[in-house]
């Protein structure tokens, strides 16, 4: 069990109070705290004495990484060479429409495109959930796949 002292912000969250209220309690001497640098820290024992009951530690403190929800994210850059301006516009618009519309596995998907006309090269940047990213990659392969 962690014995880390709480920040004023954590105390405010635990008690459902505003941060300024907690700071006022500390300044008035109602809530015992230690000043470290420019910030206050409140020991669990002092917080329990203040509330008169045991304090439930934040979920992250009790369960570590188990309290966090697992996410799998993708970030990749796809380069499409030998592509013209019109095909770039069509592909870019399709990908951006797919990213902004519809539902995605984690609600976040971002697609950006950069076209170098001199080299006839398109770079596509994909950021988001793994399933959504895989779907975007399938669309790119279908629409701009290698041509013989």
Quickly describe the structure:
It comes from Streptosporangium jomthongense. This protein is α+β, with helices and mostly antiparallel strands and 148 residues long.
What can you tell me about this protein's structure?
- This is Helix-turn-helix domain-containing protein.
- It holds the Pfam family HTH_17.
- This protein folds into two domains: 6-67, Multidrug-efflux Transporter Regulator, Chain: A, Domain 2, CATH 1.10.1660; 73-144, TATA-Binding Protein (2-Layer Sandwich), CATH 3.30.310.
- It is 42% helix and 24% strand.
- The chain contains six helices and six strands, in the order E-H-H-E-E-H-H-E-H-E-E-H.
- The strands form two sheets. It has a three-stranded antiparallel sheet.
- The longest helix has 16 residues, at 85-100.
- It is rod-shaped.
- The termini are far apart.
Strand order of the largest sheet: 1-3-2
Quickly name the level 1 CATH class of the largest domain.
Alpha Beta
Report the helical percentage.
40-55%
Give the number of helices: 6
Number of extended strands:
6
What would you report as the Rg, rounded to the nearest angstrom? Answer: 26 Å
The succession of helices and strands, N to C, reads: EHHEEHHEHEEH
Biggest sheet character: 3 strands, antiparallel
Mean pLDDT: 84
> Which architecture of the largest domain does the CATH hierarchy give at level 2?
2-Layer Sandwich
* C-alpha end-to-end distance: 63 Å
Tally of domains: 2
Low-confidence segments, given as residue ranges, are none
Structural class: alpha+beta
